[in-house]
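Researcher: Let's try something more involved. This one mixes different molecule types, so please make sure each is placed in the same coordinate frame as the others.
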Amino acid sequence: MTLRRINKFLCYLILILLSILCLFSFYLLIINSTRAHSQIQKGFSFTTGDFFVANLKNVLGNSELPIVKGIRNSLIVSILSALLATYFSVLTAFSIHIYDFKLKKLAFTFIMMVMMIPPQVSALGFVRWMGRLDLIDSLIPLFMPSVASPIVFYFMMAYMQSNLPKAVIEAARMDGSSEFRTFNLIVLPIMKPAIAVQAIFTFVSSWNNYFIPSLIIRSADKKTLPILIAQLRSADYLKFDMGQVYMLIFLAIIPIIIVYIILSKYIVRGVAVGSVKE
Amino acid sequence: MGDIVLKDVNKVYPGGIRAVSDFNLEIKDKEFMVIVGPSGCGKSTVLRMIAGLEEVTSGELYINGELVNQVLPKERDIAMVFQNYALYPHMTVYKNLAFALTLRKVPKDEIDRKVRETARILELEEVLDRKPKALSGGQKQRVALGRAMVRDPQAFLLDEPLSNLDAKLRASTRTEIIKLHNKLETTFVYVTHDQVEAMTMADRIVVMKDGYIHQVGNPQDLYEAPYNMFVAGFIGTPQMNFIPTRLKKDDTVYYLEIDESKIIISEERFSRDVLDSYLGKELVLGVRPEDIVEVLDHEERLDTLKAQVEVCEHMGSEIIVYIDYKGQNIIAKFDSDRKTSMKPNDEIRITFKPNRIHLFDKESEISLLANKANMEKEESY
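Model: All components are placed in one shared frame. Result:
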């Protein structure tokens, strides 16, 4: 009995320590966004400062930083990435899961192989290609490649295999539904939890993406938030203000939190429960 | 409206697996046709081919006189009820029922009228706003039926619709489906592995095994005159007893020799020509459990088998007795008034009602009662 209690105590202790480790950086971020540059340089404090409004004003009023446009650009890119990646990945997974066609196995293997290649490897070729298409300094190269997201596809495929009964598709066919309509009216709603999960992931990774935008974007009014944050951090010594940096990062995480709150309610287990009897 | 014809239909899956071979069947309009057979016999494949969910490898499939081999399922105007219900999990019962009509752009008020009418017939009015996960097994089954009903299709295809229900519900749903068929006056094609369902529901039954049709006929025909040993053994519970025997003739009397016993054959039942052709050959005697008679005479008779009672199952109105005859199991069904005096290890003497026995060719397993025409058909495969 006592051994079990000690065990439980240790479990909780470790979990609490891990949580603190994870949440501490957020705490630091919020505290520092309320403090002035000089205060931040003095070291860490547990209590909030009173420079929150001043920092906010400085960031928004910074003439070299198009913050509002940056947020807008990041939102456009991230939302479109999330939509394209999830929709087309479910569509691809649906076709491979439901239909029998020649070279189906090869197609699947090929997608899996693409998954193994890190984006850094293909980045150079990608940028040159975009140059030829005259898409440098455009937002299109930032969201369009999401149409082909092998990892999202793989996740959708796995979810589909255990949650989308073929009989439901056949029932829709018998009911007179065309294949595309079946996909939109039957398959997408069943896939909602998986779509929500992957939409969050794609949104966040696109929101945080610095690498590709830094290679593609040139003009100030097309810059996304990560580029602006980097720009602020690399400002010269006289203008450097940690308060502004923390404030901008603080602003940058708000949309992510909102997206998570909106989508997490769709992440419910077992939407397909009750459809077919196993 | 609603007859289905299959002509020399074959189904071969990729990899050369033959599911259905030389399938010829004419399903009449408004008929309740049951396809029955053990699992893996190809019965579901036949149904799925009629539905259009599987392609026909060769042969012709007609619905309403129209060749539909290349017609998409949605254009065939037939409805299907799936074994595992296959309801749309994210839609309410109402929307599940209305889905097919919405796709056909039926006016809203007509959809509403039809859905409510169907829900009333199937007693689903209370649950129209619920989603499938909040329904019981029986309710889900009724929603699946309802989804087919609202469309007034030319034919209903039912793929083992009762196999996921418990025994009590199964019996009542069975009656519901029969009533539904009478009410809707539409063609029903019903697939099951349960011969009781087949016998109780069908106008006609198709018995399948290994992709071939073994017999087509009404339940009574199948029971009284099974074409071969497979049908004889498959239809009827407890199943028919098969006893190896040899046909002999004594002057003018034909008899079956089972060890020392001699069972006289009624010439009314088997034609003299057929019997002559099997004289001296090995046959299989088929007897239904209810056609076994206990002989209570004390003197030894030649036309009886002496056997031992192993187990007695009291069913109330009758008693099923498992008898051991020289290592062979024989199942008999007696009236319950006999039950008081029978117990395990009793020695009994049994004989068979001469007008009810079946004889099968040992090699081809075909019944000696089968007529010539059938015989030729059998040889063709």
